[in-house]
Amino acid sequence: MPACKKTSAPSTPEPDLSITPEQWERIFSLAEEGQTLRQISTQAGMPAWEQMRHSLRTSQALATRYARARVLAAEAFEDRLLQEVQSISGDDTAAMRLRIETLKWIMSKRAPSRYGEKAAAEATVEPAAQADGRPRTIRRVIVDPVGKGK
After folding, report:
1. DSSP letters along 62-123, please?
2. Which bin fits 80, alpha (ψ -120 to 50), beta or left (φ > 0)?
3. For 52-63, what is each residue's pLDDT tens digit?
4. Which of the 8 DSSP states describes residue 42?
5. Is the dihedral angle over the CA atoms 134, 135, 138, 143 positive or is it negative?
6. Neighbours of 29 (CB within 10 A)
7. Distance of alpha carbon 105 from alpha carbon 62, whole angstroms
8. How far apart are CA 53 and CA 27, in angstroms?
């Protein structure tokens, strides 16, 4: 009988400890303002995008805080939308409409329960026949294939 190999239990990877708590506070603050992890990673003194994503995947506590920051980001977009609406001038309405519609779309994607499209009511289609099998309506269409009726 072959010898059994000992296998270790799969371990849960630890979050990247090279990201300091101060950096995480800054990351969450910027995320609450609506910035993405990629945008944050381009700023001086911030960790790489891959490092932040790895840490968020491996730490439930960090992931929960980041999710909360994303919810708060929707409120930041709402504030920005209101500022845009208040600054509309009559001479550049098309550009303002595009900016507002874009912000609304982003908000509906980031917070669909709050800003998403409401479920459309299902259309009711009347059956083609009555309960006794007779058609509901009878239509007669007369077609003049030669076109002499004109």
Report:
1. HHHHHHHHHHHHHHHHHHHHHHHHHT--TT-HHHHHHHHHHHHHHHHHHSHHHHSPPPPPPP
2. alpha
3. 999 999 999 999
4. T
5. negative
6. 13
7. 27
8. 12
Cβ 15 vs Cβ 53: under 8 Å: no
Which residue matches tokens 């550009």?
95
Contact (Cβ atoms closer than 8 angstroms) between residue 54 and residue 14 = no
Rounded CA separation 22/83 (Å): 31
Does residue 49 sit in helix, strand or coil? Answer: helix
Question: What pLDDT digit, counting tens, does each position of 97-120 carry?
Answer: 877 787 787 778 778 888 887 644
pLDDT at 95: 76
Cβ count near 73 (within 10 Å): 21
In the chain, the N- to C-terminal Cα span, in Å, equals 98
Supply angle C-alpha 32, 36, 40, rounded to 5: 90
- The predicted model scores a pTM of 0.54
In terms of Cβ atoms closer than 10 Å to its own Cβ (0-12, 13-18, 19+), residue 31 is buried
pLDDT digits (tens, 9 = 90+) for 1-31: 555 555 555 454 555 568 999 999 999 999 9
